[in-house]
Amino acid sequence: MSIFEYNGSALVAMVGKNCFAIASDRRLGVQLQTIATDFQKIYKIHEKLFIGLSGLATDAQTLYQRLVFRHKLYQLREERDMKPETFASLVSAILYEKRFGPYFCQPVIAGLGDEDKPFICTMDSIGAKELAKDFVVAGTASESLYGACESMFKPDMDAEELFETISQALLSSVDRDCLSGWGGHVYVVTPTEVTERILKGRMD
Amino acid sequence: MESVFGLVGKDFAIVVADSSAVHSILLHKTNEDKIMLLDSHKLMGASGETGDRAQFTEYIQKNVALYQFRNGIPLTTAAAANFTRGELATALRKNPYMVNIILAGYDKETGPSLYFIDYIASLHKLDKAAFGYGSYFALSMMDRHYQRDMTVEEAVNLVDKVIMEIRSRLVVAPPNFVIKIVDKDGAREYAWRESIKDAPVIAS
After folding, report:
1. Closest residue in B to A27 (Cα–Cα)
2. Calpha distance A114→B176 (Å, rounded)
3. What pLDDT was estimated at residue B197?
4. Which residues 6+ apart lie within 8 Å of B182 measured at CB?
5. DSSP character for A5?
6. Which ranges of the sequence are coiled-coil (chain B) (predicted)?
7. Contact check, Cβ <8 Å, A33/B116
């Protein structure tokens, strides 16, 4: 029994043409038992920056609270929002601080940086950043997600097509993982708007 | 293993706990009250390590009271739940409390609410929740029969169905249960469901 597989999660982020999408499953479980089917794993840091936290739910909640705190302080001091690259470095530093007693979380960060250029990255539980140009995945369903994304992804998709692709990749991957699923939660972010949608998949 | 469960109805919330105090193979008493009244409109049902349960719930109760003394207004249920989660999370990597909590409350502005708090400080707001071996039966019965906005009578009917299921299907089923309710008139004991009555303690 791995501590990363205690609660169960699936997270994916994809880059499109001047937009990005980030999606998660909705299950909160305690090993084999499902506790909730509406658990939030993707959090908004600011209008153009989202972070998804997979892994142990308690650490995801603690980490999110710490990150919001740090970002609010940053906003007060700098009088502007954090760039996604900066935020990723912040998350990496906070995770590495706990190198010998880590948060059992794998974050997926997605945002629009300078000139609304999409930025995605993931990292492991001790803050090793993994930048990607196309997609990043995390969670108990990550292996299935890698396969699904690799085959379904095309560069420069627009927001509508990106939504379809990421939804199909998420739903087909969580169907092969017993610890994640019970629907999906997808955010599609363009420079002008944020669209949040709930997916209905196999509810098991 | 201790069973605690709870559900939200129309303008009220109910929390039910078994009332056996067990040490290894010995049943010390069958009228142990595991649902603490945090303040006039909050209930905290707890299951887990006996000492931790008693100490931790009392600690939360006193801190909720302190907030009211200092600030002149009571905490909302959400605030009390987040405070409890914070205390569990802080202690988690030092000296964890092995207590699972179902916190139910009634707020004038938002109505009844119920929070599930794991012993590792995972927090989630739910309509129905359960802990312990009894949860396998409680969650299934509630999934089948629960509806939104149930009346007190319907909810107690459901509670009795769950207790019947636990009594008949759990090999080490607890004999007695206590039911507490919280609504706009406050938190109070609703009923006991006893199949064994302890002899009353005679003062010497």
Report:
1. B124
2. 63
3. 77
4. B12, B13, B14, B15, B41, B42, B43, B104, B105, B106, B112, B188
5. G
6. none
7. no
Query: Quick one: which of A58, A19, A65, A70 has its CA closest to A43?
Result: A65
Which token pair is A122?
């993931």
Paired with B104 in beta bridges are B43, B114
Class of residue B197 by CB neighbours under 10 A (exposed 0-12, middle 13-18, buried 19+): exposed
pLDDT of amino acid B203: 66
Interval A120-171: pLDDT, tens: 999 999 999 999 999 999 999 999 999 999 999 999 999 999 999 999 999 9
For chain B (204 residues), the mean pLDDT of every run of 10, in chain order, is 94 96 90 94 95 96 96 96 97 96 96 97 97 95 96 96 95 94 96 82 66
A to B CB pairs, distance under 8 Å: 35
C-alpha–C-alpha distance, residues A110 and A134, integer Å: 11
Residue B4 and residue B102 in contact, taking contact as beta carbons nearer than 8 Å: yes
A65-94 per-position pLDDT tens digit: 999 999 999 999 999 999 999 999 999 999
- From the candidates B117, B122, B142, which should be mutated to test the interface with A, based on the most A CB atoms within 10 A? B122
Amino acid at position A30, single letter: V
Locus of tokens 């997926």: A108
How far apart CA B121 and CA A52 sit, in angstroms, is 19
B42, B181 Cβ separation under 8 angstroms: no
CA gap B111, B149 in Å, rounded: 12
**Hey, are the CB atoms on A36 and B135 less than 8 Å from each other?**
no
| Token pair belonging to A23 | 């999606």
**What is the predicted ipTM?**
0.92
**In terms of DSSP H, where are the helices of A10-97?**
57-78, 84-97
Give the residue carrying structure tokens 């010998």. A100
Checking phi first, is residue B114 left (phi over 0); if not, alpha (psi -120 to 50) or beta? beta
For residue B204, what pLDDT is reported?
60
Q: Which two tokens stand for residue B88?
A: 């569990």
Query: Comparing C-alpha atoms, which of A18, A23, A3, A179 is closest to residue A108?
Result: A23
